[in-house]
Structure to design on (409 residues):
C-alpha cells in the first residue's frame, strides 16, 4: 500500500484573439461608441494585469481554490461522513465504527490527531474497504502520512493529514468475535404481472438484488419487467404449467401435459418474445407437468435451444424436473424453501432464517417469495440485518458462477 498520495494539478491556458468590427450591411468599419471604447480599454488592461500576475507569481503560490481556507475540522467531518457512506457498499454495521460520530477535539496547532477505529471480522474483505478509504482520504484533500501493519495485534494504522501535520489516524482492527457468515442467498420473487401498484414499487425500491419472476402474457408483465430492468434487477420467466387440481391461465403462455414439441416451443418463444431480457425460468404451478417425463423432455429441449436455465419451484415434492433438465443439458436447480408458503406454520421471517442456515452448510441457498405486501415488509426489515452479518444477496444468474467456482457445494 502506498504511504502517500500525490495530487497532480494542472492549469488551463487561455488566449485572446483580436477582432475587427464591421457593420452588418456595408462591410465598412463600424463607428465605435465612446462608452464602448473605454469599456474595452479597461477590459484589456485587466487582462494584461492578469497575464503579468501569472507570469511573475510562482505556480506554488497561486491559489485557485478555496481548499486552503477550509478548516481541518470541516474536512475531517466530510471524511468521516464519506467513510460511513462507504460502509453501506460493504453492508458493514455501524457498530463496527468508533469515533466517527463527530469531530472529537479542536484542531489547533498543538492538538493531537483524531483517533478512529474500524473493527472487522476475520473473513471480511478489509483490503477492498481500505482501498476505498484511501480514495476518500484523497478526495477530502488529505494525504496519507504513514501506514503500518502490526501482525501481532492484527491491526493496521493509517495516518493522514495536511502537509506534514497529522490530522487523524484510522485503526483497522480484526475481531474474531464479530459475526460474518460469508454466504450467498438468491431470493426469487414470483407472480409479477398481475398488478403495478405500491407493493410492486416497494420491491423495486429494495436495495438488494432480488430476482423478479414475471408471468408472461398478463396486463402488467412487460411494464413491470421494464421497470425492474431500469432499476438494475434481473428478471426471469414465471412460466405457467398445468397443475393437478388448481385452475391455470389459458392465454397461450401455459405448458400443458400432452403438448407436442412444436407447441411447447411456440409457448417458450412467445414468452421469450414478451420478456426478452429473461435469462431463465421457473414454473408457476405445474404440479402435473412436473410428473410427466415426456412433456418435461420437450420443455427442456426448448429451453436448451434458447439457452435458458431452469429453477424447479417444487410445487410437487416428487418432481422430475431437475433430473430431466440435467440429462438434457439444461442448467437446473431446485429451490430450498418458500418464504411465504401459506401451508407452512412458520412466517417469512422464520423461513428466511432457515434458508440462511441452509446456506451456512453449503455456501448458498435459493428461496422463493411472492409479490405480496406482507412479504415485502419482511424483506425490507430482514435483508439489511442479515446483510450486516455477511449474507450476500445475489441475482439468480450469479448462482451459476458460484457453482462453477464450487463454493462449498
Amino acid at each position: 500500500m502506498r504511504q502517500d498520495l500525490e495530487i497532480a494539478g494542472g492549469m488551463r491556458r487561455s488566449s485572446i484573439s483580436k477582432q475587427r468590427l464591421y457593420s452588418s450591411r456595408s462591410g465598412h468599419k463600424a463607428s465605435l461608441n465612446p462608452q464602448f471604447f473605454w469599456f474595452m480599454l479597461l477590459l484589456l488592461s485587466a487582462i494584461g494585469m492578469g497575464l503579468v500576475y501569472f507570469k511573475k507569481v510562482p505556480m506554488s503560490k497561486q491559489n485557485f481554490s478555496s481548499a486552503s481556507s477550509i478548516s481541518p475540522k470541516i474536512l475531517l467531518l466530510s471524511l468521516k461522513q464519506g467513510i460511513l457512506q462507504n460502509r453501506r457498499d460493504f453492508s458493514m454495521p455501524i457498530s463496527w465504527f468508533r469515533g466517527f460520530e463527530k469531530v472529537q477535539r479542536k484542531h489547533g496547532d498543538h492538538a493531537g490527531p483524531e483517533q478512529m477505529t474500524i473493527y472487522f471480522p476475520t473473513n471480511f474483505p478489509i483490503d477492498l474497504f481500505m482501498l476505498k478509504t484511501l480514495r476518500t482520504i484523497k478526495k477530502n484533500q488529505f494525504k496519507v502520512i504513514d501506514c503500518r501493519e502490526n501482525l501481532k495485534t492484527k491491526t493496521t494504522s493509517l495516518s493522514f493529514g495536511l502537509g506534514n501535520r497529522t490530522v487523524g489516524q484510522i485503526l483497522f482492527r480484526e475481531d474474531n468475535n464479530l459475526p460474518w457468515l460469508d454466504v450467498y442467498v438468491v431470493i426469487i420473487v414470483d407472480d409479477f404481472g398481475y398488478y403495478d401498484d405500491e407493493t410492486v414499487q416497494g420491491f423495486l425500491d429494495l436495495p438488494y438484488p432480488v430476482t423478479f419472476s414475471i408471468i408472461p402474457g398478463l396486463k402488467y408483465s412487460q411494464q413491470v419487467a421494464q421497470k425492474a430492468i431500469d432499476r438494475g434487477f434481473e428478471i426471469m420467466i414465471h412460466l405457467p404449467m398445468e397443475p393437478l387440481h388448481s385452475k391455470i391461465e389459458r392465454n397461450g403462455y401455459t405448458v400443458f401435459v400432452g403438448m407436442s414439441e412444436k407447441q411447447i416451443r411456440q409457448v417458450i418463444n412467445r414468452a421469450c418474445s414478451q420478456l426478452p431480457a429473461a435469462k431463465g425460468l421457473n414454473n408457476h404451478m405445474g404440479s402435473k407437468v412436473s410428473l410427466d417425463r415426456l412433456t418435461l423432455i420437450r420443455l427442456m429441449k426448448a429451453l436448451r435451444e434458447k439457452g435458458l436455465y431452469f429453477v424447479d419451484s417444487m410445487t410437487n415434492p416428487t418432481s422430475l424436473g431437475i433430473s430431466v433438465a440435467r440429462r438434457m443439458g439444461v442448467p437446473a436447480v431446485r429451490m430450498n424453501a418458500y418464504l411465504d408458503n401459506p401451508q407452512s406454520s412458520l412466517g417469512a421471517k422464520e423461513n428466511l432464517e432457515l434458508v440462511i442456515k441452509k446456506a451456512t452448510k453449503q455456501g448458498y441457498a435459493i428461496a422463493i417469495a411472492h409479490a405480496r405486501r406482507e412479504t415485502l415488509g419482511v424483506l425490507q426489515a430482514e435483508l439489511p440485518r442479515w446483510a450486516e452479518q455477511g449474507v450476500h444477496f445475489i441475482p439468480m444468474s450469479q448462482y451459476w458462477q458460484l457453482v462453477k467456482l464450487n463454493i462449498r457445494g
User: Anything to note?
Assistant: Residues 224 and 265 are 25 Å apart (CA to CA). The longest helix spans residues 34-56. Residues 1-32, 59-67 have pLDDT under 50 and may be disordered.
